[in-house]
Amino acid sequence: MSSAETLDKLLRELTDAVTSDDEHIHREITADRVAEDIAGFCTNNEEMINQGFISSRLFSQETGILEILKGIRKDEFTKTKELLLDLLTVMIPKLGPSVLPHIDMVKATCMRLSLEKQSKVQKASFGPLIQLFGLCDTLDADELVALESRLEISKLWNDIADRFLFSRDSEVKATALGHAMDLMGTVAKQFSSSVPPAKAAFGTDVVFAQFINKLETNASAEAQSRAVVPGALRGLSGLLEHFDLPCTCPKEKPRPNEKLHCQSCRVLKSVMILLGHKYLSSISTYTGPRAAANFLARHGGKFRHELLEDHRAVYTSLKGLVEN
After folding, report:
1. pLDDT of 119-147, one tens digit each?
2. DSSP 3-state assignment of 179?
3. Count of beta carbons in the 10 Å neighbourhood of residue 159
4. pLDDT-based confidence at 224, cuts 50/70/90?
5. pLDDT tier for residue 76 given thresholds of 50, 70 and 90
6. Which of the residues 249, 257, 286, 321 has an alpha carbon 20 to 30 A from that of 82?
7. What's the CA gap between 153 and 193, in Å, rounded?
8. For residue 251, how many other CB atoms are within 10 A of its CB?
9. CA angle 70-75-81, nearest 5°?
10. Among 164, 162, 104, 161, which residue's Cα sits nearest to residue 132?
């Protein structure tokens, strides 16, 4: 059996598993196993990726991943949905611009799945969109404007802001919120004209403020919601590509231990906490510090005055990071 036939067989098996009339628990076990097999097959088959076989199969209108996800009922096959969404997130950068013709279907599928109750499915639903929107760098200005209008990016921005960033629902998990902020940053970077201006609903001023609040709240060694931190930093990074932080500097410099009101100072202080020895010594994964270092490398020039003023503390944090 050829590689293409193997993948076709696995996709048919998964389609049968999620649509058959067998007992639900057995279908879920089968679907999870086959989804894992599909993920392993696709990610380890560079030759088929280069030849375009995997792209044509994964996005097939008959047995492709998006069709399978569309056919699964809400709040069923949670693990299968998570596996397939994660596979899309991994494969989209590998497949490159060849997947852009499927962007409408990917967006519709991911936004529908982001409405589900399971936080793992919510979180996974943002990954394909983040990666797919990142590919829009390959489009010219006219193509980008047309795509922006067709995908209703302004509505997407408002929906994500309303349901995640400004949600009062205590059930919104940190991982889902972090990925939602990451997606908003990607949208701000790629489709800046769809971002509402300051003073508008979900405009840049309130979104900047909320990103900073989420970053500041969780950028400490004691915080339990560290999954928020990388998303908040990537969200801020995307906004800063086209928008400036609103100036909130007080006339006088705050005294030691006094609450900071300058947004730039608050961002930089949080970044320094993430790069500090206390934080680094209390964690097992480095997604937060890595995001902080990338943020500083990308946007350090916009914080030059604050960096110069606190250059000793900055040097100490960066030196500790290198030595850690």
Report:
1. 899 999 999 999 999 999 889 999 999 99
2. helix
3. 16
4. low
5. confident
6. 286
7. 9
8. 4
9. 55
10. 104
Is the pLDDT confidence value at 257 over 50?
no
In angstroms, rounded to a whole number, what is the distance separating the alpha carbons of residues 217 and 219? 6
Neighbours of 27 (CB within 10 A): 19
Instruction: Report how far residue 315's alpha carbon sits from residue 317's, in angstroms, rounded to the nearest whole number.
Output: 6
Q: How far lies 53's CA from each of 2, 6, 7, 93, in Å? A: 12, 12, 9, 15
Backbone dihedral region for residue 3 (phi beyond 0: left; psi -120 to 50: alpha; all else: beta):
alpha
Query: Which structure tokens are listed for 162?
Result: 């309303």
- Distance of alpha carbon 23 from alpha carbon 26, whole angstroms: 6
Rg of the chain over CA atoms, in angstroms? 22
pTM of the predicted structure, to 2 decimals: 0.88
Q: What does residue 236 show for φ and ψ, rounded to 5 degrees?
A: -60, -40
Whole-number pLDDT of residue 231: 95
Query: What is the CA angle 232-238-241, rounded to 5?
Result: 140
For 297, the token pair is: 């490398």
Phi, psi of 259, rounded to the nearest 5 degrees: -60, 135
The residue type at 276: G
